[in-house]
Amino acid sequence: MRTRPLTELAAHELRPLLDEEAGYWSRELFWDFGDVSSAVLGGIERRTLAGRVAHDGRQPVAYGYYMTDSARAVVGSLFATADARGCGLEEALLDAILGEAQGLAGADRVECQTLFSTAAGADFRFARAGFTGRRRHYLVRDLGEPLLPARSTFRLRPFRKDDVAAAAAVIHKSHARSLDAALNLTYSTPVTCRTFVETVVLRSGCGRFDDAASLVADGGDGCLGVILASRLSRYNGHVCQVSVAPEMQGRGLGAQLVVACLQAMATRGLRSASLSVTVENHRAYDLYMRLGFRLKKEFAAHAWVRPPARIEIPA
């Protein structure tokens, strides 16, 4: 088995592997992976996507990639065909990808969430490379099951595009000194939170944005809470983000937002809803369990910073 950089590959060579991957994540996670596959092919065609591919002499059988911005490198999908899976091939690719990403000049931070990984030994590889990681769960709820009404009665309304700044502010405040903010630079500043909201709302960065199931809780002092939702496939909705202002937490607003979001999804004909949560975020995890979500896949969030800096995990 030989490996080579993705930049040496023609798009048509990788297409069969990407088609198999799209089918796999559709079955496993109810996630239409077509937009991601198209973006990967576009990066290969432009010779701009960094990563590696394993080739069995006839065709590519595994690949992984990473992307960079001004502040970090982010490791993306790591996938092997059914015949090549479980033989350590994905782990070997991951070792090479992490070595490249950690060696980049000017990239002093590397992150990855292994939701889209078929590598059983990925967590060990990240730990060996000096990453800090925490377990996350991808949860799914059958929208055909009864949903208990929320007890709180905050005023909710549909999310509007002019809510981006207010939503970003609530998301940032709710993540201050949190585990998720330590592992994901997205939550670290008001600017990165705004970029995240714009990516979800304006650029379909997490499936097609669902403006009917995305809601804002208004109060006398502005936005008290927000839930952002999308469609990952024809029948599966996704809760991209739930955030409640710190001073309003513990009053049932989070539950009210989630219940209203799920009701909107069900009304529009969706059959299931999914979300991701850090296992150590006990308040959020317990809420989702009470609302009928169940484990679909366990994965992890990993982050590394160039020494002597280090990831500060809150007590």
General description of the model:
The protein has 315 residues and is an alpha+beta fold. The protein has two domains: 2-130, Aminopeptidase, CATH 3.40.630.30; 141-297, 3-Layer(aba) Sandwich (Aminopeptidase). It has nine helices and 13 strands. The chain has helices at residues 11-29, 34-45, 89-102, 122-128, 164-174, 179-183, 190-202, 253-267, 282-290, and strands spanning 2-5, 50-55, 60-68, 73-80, 109-113, 132-142, 156-158, 208-209, 215-219, 222-231, 236-244, 272-278, 294-305. Strands 1, 2, 3, 4, 5, 6, 7, 8, 9, 10, 11, 12 and 13 form a 13-stranded mixed beta sheet that branches. The longest helix has 19 residues, at 11-29. The radius of gyration is 20 Å and the shape is globular. The termini are far apart.
